[in-house]
């Protein structure tokens, strides 16, 4: 019984010896997993770099322009874009191309986008002038002044606005309000000017000049409209100038009649 017990005891003591080797196996497993992770990561990075270099070498095969080209020259736009194409399809600086194109006076907005696999698409939105500004400039719907390389044709029939630097937005606003008032009586505002002192002068179709002064030009225009409907409409083609700067009325200058 003692021998059996001793053997049994020796057997029990041997079990921890086998267990002592298990942490070594786990450590090798961890090392292997780490090496495997490093290898996979390096392979992934290498693959990405190789793919990136291949993509960067893809050229731009086609440049497509879209939009209504009435004043913008395609040839001029192509010249501006060409210098940006050498970097390839992936390396294109879309914002840089957009900024380059929008330097053209008649380009209001340029929308630049890649089209897979090798196409560059550019959509051009031209400026829409609402008035001639000063000497040769044009005014767009946002009150921005731009200077075209060529003057508009005479058939454009745009009003002429002028005023001090920085006053374009206010002059455009007043023009719209005045045009609405005059339009009720089929009168057309052809010119509107604000001088450096802030005084307003309007010229209507037919050449009649309205002197509106500095203070409350819209109120003075309303007063003129009331007098126009009551007394001036029938013979308005003979009216040369109307001065509205008086507190309780206005002064009318007439064209001289032939033979008088």
UniProtKB/TrEMBL annotation:
Region of interest (Disordered), ranges? 1-21
Where is composition skewed (Basic residues) in this entry?
Answer: 1-13
User: Is Oxidoreductase found in the keyword set?
Assistant: no
Record's keyword annotation contains Transmembrane helix: yes
One of its Pfam families is POTRA_1
Q: Which GO terms describe its biological process?
A: cell septum assembly; FtsZ-dependent cytokinesis
Domain called POTRA: residue spans: 58-127
Membrane association type: Single-pass type II membrane protein
Q: What is its main location?
A: membrane
- Locations listed in the record: Cell inner membrane; Membrane
**Any one GO CC term of the record:** plasma membrane
Name the residues that span the membrane: 31-48
Keywords of this entry: Cell cycle, Cell division, Cell inner membrane, Cell membrane, Membrane, Transmembrane, Transmembrane helix
Membership in a protein family: Belongs to the FtsQ/DivIB family. FtsQ subfamily.
Its subunit composition reads: Part of a complex composed of FtsB, FtsL and FtsQ.
The entry's function note states: Essential cell division protein. May link together the upstream cell division proteins, which are predominantly cytoplasmic, with the downstream cell division proteins, which are predominantly periplasmic. May control correct divisome assembly.
Q: What is this protein called?
A: Cell division protein FtsQ
